[in-house]
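anyone seen this seq b4? input:
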Amino acid sequence: MPKMPEFATADPFHGMTADSPGVVQNLLAGAWSNASAVREDIVDPMNGAAFLRVPDTQDYAGYIDSLRQCPKTGLHNPHSKPDRYLMLGRVCARAAALMAEPEVQDYFTRLIQRVMPKSWAQCQGEVVVTRVFLEDFAGDGVRFLGRGFSNPGDHDGQESRGYRWPFGPVAVVAPFNFPLEIPALQAMGALFMGNKPLVKVDSKVSTVFEQFLRMLIHCGLPATDVDLIHCPGQQMGNLIHDARDVLRLVQFTGSSSIAEHLAHELNGRVRLEDAGFDWKVIGPDYAPEWLDYVAWQSDQDAYNATGQKCSAQSLLFVHQNWRADLLPKLAELAARRSLDDLTLGPVLSWSSDRMQAHVTAVSALPGAKLLFGGKPLTGHHIPACYGTLQPTAVEVPLAALAGEHFELATTELFGPFQVVVSYDDDDLPTVLGVLERISHHLTAAVVSNDVAFQKTVLGATVNGTTYCGMRARTTGAPQNHWFGPCGDPRAAGIGTAEAIRATWSGHREIIMDQGPLPADWTIPASA
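predicted toks r here
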């Protein structure tokens, strides 16, 4: 029988069922509280059972009051309470060591899988990335995030010093598809730089971050450092509206329409990682020994987590040199996926009917054809509120994509669906023109070892996380490189020191001017 960690209050192994639902709690001003009302629309994504009692929080006044308690100077900064940098480093060290224990790793892996069904390897990867992130900032790692610089001044006693300064009261709004990694890394980044975050995670999966937060408190994090609210998205929107004079920054990961609404609501005080219609371009240098690898990576990018990744491969450009061998291989690999091992699962944000309508519309474009998939899954108990779809690919002619049908063909279906486009050498300028028109620039891949081809595509594109080379992918947000969009001054990054500093702190310059008084100085004439 799996052993429950000491800090845990949710049991994904033997609990979280209709007979024994998991109880989800809010955290406000250091105190955990039960809900006066719970959501009735949060059901087990595999069978529709009422498996969680998630708060339906309506009264959020206390959360706004709690935000007001944090000054603009933050919970700490380089000139105030610097011991907190060290404290957070120690919390990271203890939490990382705890997450390295097999039973704790398995606990979080299974907890993720219960609320966001995907393969064990995909869920475990999320846990490992979060653990290694904590390892990176253990010890002095948090302190080093506050590193500044100095420059000599104009005269003796003058020096300019640059600091990374917190914003103070902030919020993190996180999606369902990475229940642990996204809210954990963003909330920790906010804390590292001295901010006090209010965290709201999609209620379908918010129990995962709650358990992570309980673990952090168990490892020494002051319970008053973070507030956690479980509520419908519309209610969080109301909270942000009413707290817009208090919140100094909202970091949002999710749909582009909500991102734009928040940017307007907060007069631009946002950091966004919103929609990503992510592309991959497979170059002209076909190599038979690379066929299986390139096909496998494309299958991973398009269909892992049932396509529910902001970095999922949505648009695949295949050079004619690859087309005849690659497309059948893609269909072969897609056919291996199954509900049995959760290499396929429910789609939590699109209904089956809506996905089917989109597949039909794209397949009806001039010259387009369905390559494989296109039908809902059968033989399951997934509730009707969630969608299912076979791994699906539609081939669309470049002329149709580049012409009047661009908007339809580049609509992101947040599920196991991709558009495939063939091109030849003479078509590369048209391909680059399509990439220029795409509105969101998260991840991309240039699959080629041809240096001239790489430079041409990289030089004409702006995606924030771009992989290049024969092993290039579109998915993957490890802690060892920046992950986030480019081409937008509001872009949020995640994972690295650079991402944390850019997202969660601002630059402050302090000019020290401490004399001495120049000899024989007198008040000069007015100028």
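The radius of gyration is 25 Å. The chain has a mean pLDDT of 96. kinda curious what u guys think
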